[in-house]
Specification:
Rossmann fold; eight-stranded mixed beta sheet
Length: about 350
């Protein structure tokens, strides 16, 4: 007797046909066409299958789960559905063959000015992606004022293995920074070729793991570091961080124009420290002026400062807070946008 007397007509082909009616909400194609269905099993009236997400940080997985289960349950003879999730982050095709490091996507976080919490955004973005199950690294490209070590509560020098530095790790995130290599309080005055070489070495002279996302925390402004980064590696996209105030938005627009000159796609704008004394709305205004997406509004929260000083990002320190939840949602939106960009045959993200 085969397949435990499965009902007549209940076959793998029937299951796949049912799942071909289920759309991936971000990509607007069905799960079968996108090759996201694996390991279909049938035992009696019990049907099992796996949906392989394009990112473990998928913001709409619950929608897909419900739609897929409903589609299969509608088949005659189905008594139960066992659906599982896996993830396979797609690689930015521009990186393939261009870098000798095992990184699928490189995302630069930038601002036109200091003081808007760019390193805080980079840190919580990275940790949020890791909490969702992605393999993540952070490269602190702020050579002049590296804050990432403090944000992660890390110190000490990286080990050297096979003539390369091994990143320090915390919260499931690999971290490398000039702050690990310099005496505390020492100022860096490099420009031009020296700065370019330093940033390049932070990419190539590091034993990075097999990363789904490498988040690059850029220094504020539009200077040599941004140019060196764009010349060193293909960037999957850039995120612009702004405060709510008009002066911050003005500087953010200049930061975006730097990405434009370097032909880096803008993933969108995030408004940090929103509400209370700083007001709100500047990030949305900036996104409209740039004709890009508004990614998130992160509320002003004193626990962000407390966590930054103590090396505990707010998504770790106060995971149930409104600010932590805003960061988690923000990370999922970024991951979804990268998936869309990497899968659709015609990139939908515009260079502003």
């Amino acid at each position: 007797m085969f397949d435990n007397d499965k009902p007549s007509g209940l076959t793998q082909d029937a299951v796949m046909k049912a799942l071909s009616t289920v759309q991936e909400p971000e990509l607007h194609q069905d799960l079968v066409t996108l090759n996201m269905i694996r390991d279909v099993t049938i035992s009696g009236g019990e049907v099992g299958f796996t949906i392989v997400l394009t990112t473990p940080a998928c913001p709409l997985r619950a929608v897909m789960e419900q739609d897929a289960v409903n589609a299969v349950k509608a088949l005659p003879g189905v008594t139960s559905v066992n659906m599982r999730f896996a993830a396979d982050v797609r690689q930015d095709h521009r990186i393939i063959g261009k870098l000798n490091i095992p990184v699928k996507n490189i995302v630069a976080v930038a601002s036109g000015k200091g003081g808007v919490g760019k390193s805080t955004v980079s840190t919580n973005l990275a940790v949020s992606l890791a909490l969702d199950g992605a393999k993540v690294g952070v490269l602190d490209a702020d050579i002049y004022g590296p804050n990432i070590p403090m944000m992660f509560g890390l110190s000490g020098r990286p080990r050297i293995e096979r003539e390369k530095m091994t990143p320090l790790e915390r919260y499931g995130v690999e971290v490398i920074s000039m702050g690990f290599l310099m005496p505390e309080g020492e100022a860096v005055v490099w420009r031009g070729p020296m700065l370019h070489k330093a940033i390049q070495q932070l990419f190539t002279d590091v034993n990075w793991g097999n990363l789904d996302y490498l988040i690059v925390d850029l220094p504020p402004g539009t200077g040599d570091a941004q140019l060196s980064l764009a010349q060193s590696v293909p960037l999957t996209g850039g995120i612009i961080v702004t405060g709510p105030q008009a002066v911050s938005v003005s500087d953010a627009l200049r930061g975006a124009k730097a990405f434009e000159r370097l032909e880096v796609p803008i993933l969108g704008v995030v408004e940090n420290m929103s509400g209370d004394i700083f007001g709100a709305g500047g990030g949305m205004d900036a996104a409209k002026k740039l004709h890009v997406d508004f990614l998130a509004r992160i509320p002003l929260d004193s626990q962000v400062r407390i966590g930054g000083d103590s090396g505990e990002p707010i998504v770790i320190l106060a995971p149930e807070s409104a600010t932590a939840k805003a960061f988690r949602d923000f990370a999922r939106v970024v991951a979804a946008k990268i998936s869309v960009q990497n899968i659709l045959p015609e990139p939908h993200l515009k260079i502003v």
